[in-house]
From TrEMBL:
Record-linked InterPro entries: Anaerobic_Co-chelatase
Origin superkingdom: Bacteria
Lineage of the organism: Bacteria, Bacillati, Bacillota, Clostridia, Lachnospirales
Protein name according to UniProt: Sirohydrochlorin cobaltochelatase
Example of a GO MF term: sirohydrochlorin cobaltochelatase activity
Pfam families in the cross-refs: CbiK (PF06180)
Active site location: 150 (proton acceptor)
Keywords: Cobalt, Metal-binding
GO biological process terms held by the UniProt record: anaerobic cobalamin biosynthetic process
Chain positions recorded as Co(2+) binding sites: 150, 181, 216
Amino acid sequence: MSKNRKKSILVVSFGTSYNDSRERNIDAIEQTIAETFPEYEVRRAFTSQVIIDKLKKRDHIGIDNVKEALEHALEDGVTELIVQPTHLMDGIEYMDLAETVEEYRNRFKQLDIGDPLLTTEEDFNRVIDAITDATVQYDDGETAICFMGHGTEAKANQVYTRLQKELQKRNYINYYVATVEASPSITDLIHMVKTKTGGGYKKAVLRPLMVVAGDHANNDMAGAEEESWKCLMEEAGYKVKCIVEGLGELADIRQLYAAHVKLIMNADKSERSV
């Protein structure tokens, strides 16, 4: 099926300067969306101007910020545009994106924005399915399986607590969620792991709960510095394995982003049929 250049999907990510991780995560998500909706052209934007500038200077790679991407879509004659973020939650980055999209609302025939990854109860269940399937080989009762989220000052930070509660509710008792920049912290995580009901752990697996395995995953989680999660967990007495892979490397996560796009399309059809 040929693409209709008047209909596009703009996939918006925070971005990363780690080229290999960008290919395995952001590129992969965009490719899944493109394959799922072959009649749409898929475009890219990053929200981090720091990363955009770094890639341009270091690698001569040009990536639009959100406003540039919206302007380019208009210049190219796009009339119907779906903006799908790869953000985890409706935190500060997502709210800023939504505000920018709203500024352009009247300049497109149809302009919609999809939900972040963790929005509905079904989203939480599907993400839990994906991350537990990806780590099932470590769930031996002797290993604490720990996920590092980014964390935010926004109200949306509660998604981490909710995810922890949902994991426990589904009897994934060896799974833990904490954040780099908010609560629960690495200190909270070590306390949770040490006070596990029924005995302690010997090992710990660390994996990022982030779309891309970038700076936080490589340095704050798996780095050699004494304040990294790896070093702090080793200091606490655990044999540590780090899995430096983003959520975008999981096919089920990529499909969930595509499902969010589909929800927007179905909603548009319903509105037009009324």
